[in-house]
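Feature request, filed as a ticket because there's no other form

It would be nice if the structure record came with a short human-readable summary line next to the tokens. Right now we just get the raw output. Example of a typical job, pasted below so the devs can see what we mean:
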Amino acid sequence: MYCSRCGAEIDDDSLYCSHCGAPVAKEKMSPMNPHRQTPGSIEPIGTTGNMMSTTGEPAKIKKTNIGSVVGFIISMVGVVLIILAMIFESVGLLIATAVIGGVGTIISSISLAKQDKIFRARNSYAGVGITLGVILFVAGLLYAILL
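Raw output as currently delivered:
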């Protein structure tokens, strides 16, 4: 039997995983009986994003979309640029901040739209990238206008 959280192999009579400490579920749910799940189906486990097949094998899932991480990193570069722009009072850096914020927002939004619905809500990189990108875009443009 395999742990539903970390995927490590554990004894059939174990109550907790010896690797991560997660409780071992003995019965799964199914549509016919809300207390049991049919063999071969996949169920989400906790908030970790891990999936476990009821056949005992870990389900192969993609946890993070690379576009989300790229959009987040681009937005973080925009944060550094807006700080530098405020220190040096540079309109050019503010415009660059607005452009980078817009690019980070677009990349994060596209990668978020391409993900499955189950994992969309759990992707914090895309959410933070979109939020930072919009804030940087608006703040960069407003501050450039005020200078």
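Something like this underneath would help us a lot:
The longest helix spans residues 66-88.
The longest strand covers residues 42-45.
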